Amino acid sequence: MKNLIFLFFILVSCNSRAQETPFKQLRYDENYSYLAQDTSVNWYHRLKFDPVSTDKATYFSFGGEVRYQYFYFNNQDWGEAPQDPDGFILSRYLGHVDFHAGKHFRSFVQLQSSMAGGLAETPSPVDQNLLDLHQAFLEYATTFNSKQHISLRIGRQELSYGSQRLVAVREAPNNRQSFDAAKVMYGNKNTKLDMFYSHYVVAKPNIFDDTFSSGTQFWGAYGVFTKIPVVKNIDLYYLGLHKKAAVYNDGKGAETRHAIGARIWDTKPAWQYDVEGLYQFGDLEANSISAWTVSANISYTFYQHQLKPQIGLKTEVISGDKNMADGKLNTFNPLFPKGAYFGLAALIGPYNLIDAHPYVQFNLSKKLIFAADYDLFWRMSRNDGLYAVNGKLLYAGKAGNSKAIGRQLGGALEYTANRYLFFRQELTWFDAGDYLKEAGPGKDILMLGTTVTLKF
After folding, report:
1. Does the structure show a pLDDT above 80 at 248?
2. Can you list the domains of the chain with their CATH numbers?
């Protein structure tokens, strides 16, 4: 923590013009080439743009992140986990170097170190991964007709698409996820199209042991089309998955799954909407797969009001297995979703679920936001179980007859001190429903979470 505070004071003291460029979630999307025109003598500018050629077309750019989180749970896992009276701390360190050799060639390398302290049980690799090569790729890019561009990227990289319901960087958990992939990217004014083939990188707890793995293969094509009449923006995609070992309530074994979907969205100043639907098919050993989901997130912002209040409703219907041992698997697979799918507590995963989720948000000042939400959960099918975000089966379908999982009330304060420093304080209460009381201890959960993030 002392290092974080020291680095913060150094950064804010530089008062750099780089404040005009916000950090991105995908750090390789940041572009600091505009600093080639900067004439000030500033160490931070040199960190972000360090030319090594006279024309300044070849340069290095350095950056990173330090994040600390404190969590306290009362009745973690609804009373199944050992009670920890003190809570625990998660820390994450990310550092990268981005090298551009002219307009066409670049390489990007990022290291990640994630550590967990004070956990009552042995931390999972998602919480603790001491040091590893998180990203390392080469890229060739070119433009033609002055309005179109195409790129080829090969190597270890993060993938993120749409609202991150299916493919995400897994930002909220301690260890972000990546893929060993080959990806072709095409874009013009109103179109962006990616095609990729990859192997999922399995997180392991020790130093530089996240080696290439053939256990999970992931491929697909994802298109984003903007300025479309009526719907405004639409995403169309196909995603394919093969896992050597998958486990569901209604079977386990090798899984091959295909997903075809569409998403329409818009971010107007007042009305915002994000509606998505997809269908999955394939097989799990001898079982055929037929699964689906439909989701909607619709909100309205009173942007002319001083507090810019926003009210919204999220809702999802996610298929679960209808009948055991009928040769068909109806459980939806969310692939590689964001970790905090239903809040930072991350208690439930998007499998076999009906969810209704109203929320509100207020901008108390330019830097301070308050948000509150109320989530209601039911099982879609009584014959399927309850799953964690990572796909682990928490309780089997036959463990209880009720569909009612529970209700979750959450509140959060977010303070953005400046472009470098971010604070979040979150409180979550989960009222266990009848199914959890039938399947296990069924105790109510209280979670307190504090996050401090410094980026540079």
Report:
1. yes
2. 2-455 (2.40.160.100)
